[in-house]
Specification:
457 residues; alpha+beta
Length: 457
């Protein structure tokens, strides 16, 4: 129920703001607005102050909305009202009215990102766990417990982006992978190696933006102490004598770096169908104990076999409250919105030319699932999710496809260049093409949703 309600709220807010942009600009340009609708289909709620006022309606199917304006190309317009018709306004005003919807989504994203930063959220600091084996981070020399304080463009001394939380670091690394350029990481000196800079080469990292991108870079999560926090009764850890609070010092004579390293060591502790016995050295109440641990082989959905000890491993990572003041929050919202818009546009371009997988395209099921999860994580997370979807709508609606706002702007550009609008016959053909393209995109997105939910992706 939370997922459904949060999804409906997400769609309602974003659609209402988009259509409000069209509505307000139309009114500012002197165009009469006949109907403002949230949703399609049967009308559930209707309000109209008087016959000449805008009719406000909410319909049964909430997946969209529209603003219907007085237009002599669609309805009979009385001579005394022709000046109020959309098609009778100057070209620049018509263009502003069309563009106002996507721009409203962009401004909403700025506000939402800013609000999320004002609310603030507790996040792990940018202190990293042991890098994934063979990854770019491991080759760069990053070690467990290193804390990243800034990400710098290749060869730049200035222009470094300060980093406090691991989410900020993940965003900077994602941008760097998309750009395909190496970056420098500035590391704090609270480890044995002291202050230093590492060059991170990302040219060999697959730039496809999916849930595995950060692991391909080498990010295994935030640093966590190798402490047993919970033991499942009857599991391999319980049978070995492990207890909550035990700190793991060594596995097979090798010093344990952190919780991530220990988990990977456990996962790799299988030989076919057989478990590989490990000798653990743990610290419990100031005493050191040697325990024999036999991880149990487990087959995953993809056929991979891993070892498990059925215990929670890792202390809570060091946290920091990520919050900004009003002015800094607005600036952050503006920058984040523009950067996300550019990233979205670039990824669409990569998909178009085959450099990125079409499986990244998401539809309503994925959006609904993400909305429900973000609501459960708190206000800041949900506001950030709303902002992300709003940015996506901004970019999508400006694409030069018939039936989208970007397609109408292309018609206006044609009119500006040639001095005449496209013919009705061409408009009809383009509308049909646009409908087919949108239906194909919707079908692909829905297929990707089902594939993800079934765990087949």
């Amino acid at each position: 129920m939370t997922t459904v309600l949060s999804f409906l709220l997400t769609i309602a807010v974003l659609v209402a703001v988009h259509e409000w942009g069209h509505y307000r600009m139309a009114r500012a340009c002197g165009v009469r607005v006949l109907r403002f609708s949230i949703g399609f289909g049967r009308v559930l709620w209707r309000r109209q102050a008087h016959p000449q006022a805008t009719e406000w309606v909410v319909c049964l199917l909430p997946l969209g909305g529209y603003v219907r304006m007085l237009d002599s190309r669609e309805d009979h317009v009385a001579p005394e009202e022709r000046a109020l018709a959309f098609d009778q306004r100057p070209l620049w005003q018509r263009s502003l009215i069309v563009a106002a919807g996507p721009v409203a989504n962009l401004l909403l994203a700025v506000l939402l990102y800013a609000a999320a930063s004002w609310v603030g959220v507790q996040e792990p600091v940018a202190r990293l766990a042991t890098p994934v084996a063979g990854s770019a981070l491991e080759r760069a020399g990053l070690q467990a417990g290193d804390r990243v304080t800034a990400v710098c463009p290749d060869g730049a001394v200035t222009g470094c982006e300060p980093v406090r939380t691991i989410s900020e670091l993940n965003w900077q690394l994602t941008r760097a992978v998309i750009d395909g350029e190496p970056v420098w990481l500035e590391l704090a000196g609270d480890g044995p190696t002291g202050n230093r800079r590492l060059m991170l080469k990302l040219d060999a990292v697959d730039p496809e933006v999916d849930e595995r991108l950060l692991r391909r870079i080498g990010v295994a999560g935030a640093y966590s102490e190798p402490v047993i926090t919970r033991v499942v009764e009857g599991g391999a850890a319980h049978e070995a004598g492990l207890q909550a609070g035990d700190r793991v010092l060594q596995v097979d004579g090798v010093s344990v770096r952190d919780a991530a390293w220990l988990r990977e060591r456990i996962r790799g502790s299988t030989a076919g169908e057989q478990a590989v016995v490990q000798d653990w050295l743990v610290e419990r109440g100031g005493q050191r104990l040697e325990l024999e641990v036999r991880p149990r082989p487990t087959r995953l959905a993809d056929g991979q076999r891993i070892g498990r000890v059925e215990a929670m491993i890792g202390s809570t990572p060091e946290q920091v409250l990520a919050r900004r003041d009003v002015a800094d929050g607005v600036l952050h919202g503006w920058r984040q919105s523009l950067e996300m818009s550019w990233l979205t546009l670039r990824m669409m371009g990569r998909m178009l030319i085959g450099q990125a997988s079409l499986s990244q395209l998401s539809g309503p099921l994925t959006i609904a699932d993400a909305a429900g999860q973000s609501v459960q994580r708190g206000a800041a997370q949900y506001l950030g999710f709303l902002a992300l979807v709003s940015v996506s709508l901004f970019v999508l609606n400006l694409l030069p496809l018939p039936m989208l706002d970007g397609g109408h702007l292309m018609y206006h550009l044609f009119e500006a260049v040639t001095g005449r609008p496209p013919s009705d016959a061409w408009l009809a053909r383009l509308q049909r093409v646009g409908m087919v393209l949108l239906l194909m995109l919707m079908a692909l997105a829905l297929t990707n949703d089902v594939t993800r939910l079934l765990g087949l992706n």
